[in-house]
């Protein structure tokens, strides 16, 4: 099979590494990896499933980096992780039975709104906490987890905005917690894709290695560069995701 040729595997390794670095900082790595996987000639379902496999490696790597450095407490996040997992699992099951075209039209507007929020918000330092972490888990954790299993684009941006606006987290701390919940939703979705037999394991394995390296670099940049790097990255990624979804909806690209 051509998509398992050495040249293709090397290209996908570097694509995944770059995507993992971007994803660890601002989300949106799937913008890079999904088109690359589709270009190999595998089916769209196989591309989405394999993308979850390699994407999980990247989000897990970044999450472990933040946890080991004490930025995220797993004990505090246990309920949020559970709610996110359940939401993502339900979304993954439901997406196989309904039409997602309405979301395809709505999500670009939401992503543009997120870009404007991060672009014009004057203060991204520690702020006022508006709800408890328990309430956050039941609302944002479950809801955004469901969205990730059901549709996906912009999940990292939605989590980051929720942590900043609802929990009062500074942007680097919000990004760290975002990766933990994004990893959770990825794992839940991955399990259902694997059960469906859609995974291309060789491609996913090679890209997992690239993701591991890229995500480690990106996670380090989050803690060393902070807002000066993350804020513009989230704005750019949100705008690019919006543009791509609009193009797909109206021009069939």
Automatic annotation (TrEMBL):
Localization of this protein: Cell membrane
Primary location class: membrane
Topology relative to the membrane: Multi-pass membrane protein
Keyword DNA-binding among record annotations: no
Keyword Transmembrane helix: yes
UniProtKB keywords: Cell membrane, Membrane, Transmembrane, Transmembrane helix, Transport
Bilayer-crossing regions: 79-96, 102-120, 187-209, 229-247
Protein name: Probable membrane transporter protein
């Amino acid at each position: 099979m051509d998509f398992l040729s050495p040249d293709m595997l090397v290209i996908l390794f570097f694509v995944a590494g770059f995507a993992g670095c971007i994803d660890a900082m601002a989300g949106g790595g799937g913008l890079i990896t999904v088109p690359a996987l589709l270009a190999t000639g595998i089916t769209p379902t196989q591309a989405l499933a394999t993308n979850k496999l390699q994407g999980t490696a990247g989000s897990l790597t970044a999450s472990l980096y933040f946890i080991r450095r004490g930025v995220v407490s797993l004990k505090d996040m246990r309920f949020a992780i559970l709610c996110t997992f359940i939401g993502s699992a339900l979304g993954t099951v439901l997406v196989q039975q309904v039409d997602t075209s309405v979301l395809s039209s709505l999500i670009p507007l939401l992503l543009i709104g997120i870009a404007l929020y991060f672009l014009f918000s004057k203060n991204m330092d520690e702020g006022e906490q508006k709800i408890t972490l328990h309430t956050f888990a039941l609302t944002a954790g479950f809801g955004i987890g469901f969205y990730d299993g059901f549709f996906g684009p912009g999940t990292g941006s939605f989590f980051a905005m929720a942590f900043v606006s609802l929990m009062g987290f500074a942007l680097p701390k919000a990004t760290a917690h975002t990766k933990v919940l994004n990893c959770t939703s990825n794992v839940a979705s991955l399990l259902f894709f694997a059960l469906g037999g859609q995974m291309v394991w060789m491609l996913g394995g090679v890209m997992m290695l690239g993701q591991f390296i890229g995500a480690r670099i990106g996670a380090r940049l989050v803690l060393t560069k902070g807002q000066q790097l993350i804020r513009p990255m989230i704005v750019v990624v949100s705008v690019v995701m919006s543009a791509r979804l609009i193009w797909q909806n109206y021009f069939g690209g």
